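Quick one: structure for this chain?
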Amino acid sequence: MIRILLVDDEPDLLELVKRILEQKYGFSTVTAETGDEALQIFKEQSIDAIISDYSMPVMDGILFLRKIRELNNSIPFILFTIHEKEEIAIEAMKYGANTYVEKENLPQVVFAELAHAVTKSVELYRAEKNLKIQRDLAFANANAKSIEETLLVCTRAILDVTGMEGVAIYLVEEGELHLVTASGNQEGYLAQPVQTQILTLVTSIMKQHIPVFRDENEIIKTTPQLNELDNINSDICISMHHHGRIIGAAHIFSYQKHDTFDLSLQRFVSDIIVQVAGCISDRQAEEALKNSENRMKAMIRNLPGIVYQGHIDEERTMEFVSDAVFSLVGYQPIEIIHNAVCSWGSLIHPQDRVRIPQVITRAIEKNVMFRLTYRITTKEKKFRWVLEQGAGIYDTNGGLIGIEGIIMDITRQKLLDDQVRMFHTRLKTLFMLMNSGCAIFRSEGDVDSTILVDINNAAEEIEKKQKNELVGQPFKTIFNNADPSFHDALSGIIQDNKSRNLVKCKIKYPYGIRFFDIFLNIAPVDPEKSISEIFLIYTDVTSRVKTEQQIIASLREKELLFKEIHHRVKNNLQIISGILKLQSLRIDDPRAQEIIQECRNQVYSMASIHELLYNSKDIGKIRLEEYISKLVDHLKHEYEGVSTHLQFIVKTDPKIYLDIERCIPCGLILNELIMNAVKYAFDPDKEGEIRISFTQHEQSYHMQVADNGRGLPKDFDVRKSQSLGMELTSQLTHQLRGKLTISSEKGANFLVTFPITGEGRISI
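Got it. Here's what it folds into:
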C-alpha cells in the first residue's frame, strides 16, 4: 500500500483529496495543513510519496520541496496547484519535483492524473530504492565477517524495502526451525504463545512455498496472539530458498494497518527475500567451510605426526607437509616442499632409502595402504625412527598422481619396544633358570577352570615330568595330593585377587613327601570375562624342615637338661638350707644362729631363682615381679616375730625380665638390704614401713630398698663399714657394673642403679 503525505492549507480540499485517493485508488494518506507540520510527519513516519499544494502561507510548495530534498533527495514529490505559470513548473522541476498536476481540469481527470503520477513515481522510486538496497546488501554481505553481521544487514535491507517496522528471520538448523534474529519487535513478540503460533505459521508456509501477505482481520483469525500480545496489525510471511533447498523463512510485520499490499511491493519483497536467502546460505556455507577448515587444521595440528602429499620419486618430493615437520626434523615446511632446501628422501637413512619406493609401489599396485618404518637424520644430525603409512592419490580417470599419508616419530616407542624385548628375554631367562619352581595357570573364575600354561625347569625337576606332559592339565590334577590349605589359597586368590603365602605346605609325590614355601599372585587378563593368570612360585624346603625338626628336638632335649640341672641345683641348695637349719638348732649362741639364718636366706634367694627357671617357659629369663614377691614373702616368714609390726610395700615393673647372671646378684642385694632394714631400722615392737621397688629408667634399672626407721648413723661410710652385708652389697653392685647410693633423711634409703646392657623390658 502506497502511503502518501497530503499537504494543503485548505481543510475542505485536503479532506476531499484524501477521501478520493483512499476510496477510489486505494492509497493510504496522512494529511498536514502547513509545511512545518508536514516536515515533522515526514521525519517521524514512513512515507512513499508527497502531494503538496503550491500556494500556502509561511512556507509555499517550492520552499517545502527544497526542505524535503534536504532530508531525502529521491522521495516522489508531486506539486498540486491551480497556478498555470510555466515558471512555477520549471522552478519545481529545478528543485526536484517529479511532476506537476493542475487542479483546474475536470475532477475525474485531475485525480486520475494525480493517482497515475503518484503510482508511476512511487514504482520508480521503489525500484531505484530496491536496486540500491540490493546493491548495498550485496556489498555489505561481501564485507560481513560473520553470520551475525550478515543477518543484521539482511534485516535492515528487508525493513528498507518493505517500509515495515519489524522483521524476524527463522532458519532451519539440524532439522529444527529456530528464531535466529528479530528486529523492531516488542516484548510480546518473543513470548511463548506468540512464538508457538508463528512457528506453526512459518512451518506451513515453508511447506507450501507461497508467501502470505496478511491484514489485521487475517491475523486475528489465524494468529490472534500476534495482535493481542504484540499489537501487530499486518505482516508478511515468506519462505527462503536457495538452490532448491529450504533454509528458513522471514516474518515481516507492522504495527500499522495495511489493508492491501500492491503487486510491486510483493515483487520487491520476493526479490529481496531471494537475495537475503542467497546471502544467508552463502554465509552459512562459508561458515561451514571455515569451520571445516579450522577443524581440519586443528586435526592436522593435533595429529601425532606429519601430514603430507607428495610423489614416489627418488627424492620423495613433497607438495605439502604440515607444520609438525619442524619439530621432527628441524626444517620449516617451506624448506621441504618442492625440495626447496632439502628433500625428504635426503633425510632418509641410506640403508633404508632403497627399499622404501619398492614397498610403496607394491602397495599401490595392490590398491592397499602401505606401512613402513625407517630411520631419518634431522637437521641437527640426530637419528630418529619414524612410522609412515599412506595411500595413492588418483585422478578422475584412475591414474596415479601422487601419494598422501602421515609420518610419525616412533623413536621413543622403538626404544621402549627394544627395552621390552630385552626385559622379556631377561624375564624368560630368569623364569627358566630360577631355582624355585615357577608355574603359570590360566583361570576363568574358579578352581576347576584353572589350567597350567607354562612352567620352568625347576618345576619340571620338582614334578619329575616334562613341560609338554603338564601344560594343559588342571591345577587339581597336578596338585591332587597337596595339603588342603593349598587348594583353599588358590580358591581365595581367585575370589579376592589378593596374593597368598603358604609356609611349609606339604605335597605328597610318588617319590616321597615334600615341603614347600609357596607364593601365589594373580593378574587380570580379561576382567569382563573373569579371565586371569595365576603365578605360582614354590620352593622346596624339605631339607630345611627336617633340619628344623632336628634342631627343635635337640633344643627340647637341652631344655629338659637345663631344667633338670636347675631342679637339682635348687634341691641341693634346699638341702644346704636344711642342713644350716639343723645346725642352728644345735647352737645356743644367738650371734651364731643369726649368722646361720643369714646364710640360709642367701641360699634361699639363689634357690628361688633356680626354682623359677625350672618352672618358666623361658629357662633363660626370670620375671622380677614374681621373684621379688616370693623373696619378700620368705623373709616375712623367717622374721615372723619382727615383721608383724612392719608393712612391706613392693613396687615392681611387671614387664622386667632378667637373666640368671644378673638376677642372682640382685636377689642377694635385696636379701641383705631387706634383712638389715628388718633387724636394725626400727625400735623393738615399733611399727614401720619398708618400700622395695625395681623399675626401668631409659638406659638403666633402679633397685631401691627404703624404710622410715631411725636411719643410719651420721658418720656411716659404706667403704669403712665392717658389716659383711654392706661389703657383700658393695661387691655385688660392682659385679652389676652399677652404682650404690645411700641417703638417710627420713629413714635409710639404698638405691642401686645399673645399666640395662641389652637385657630390657619384654612385652608379654
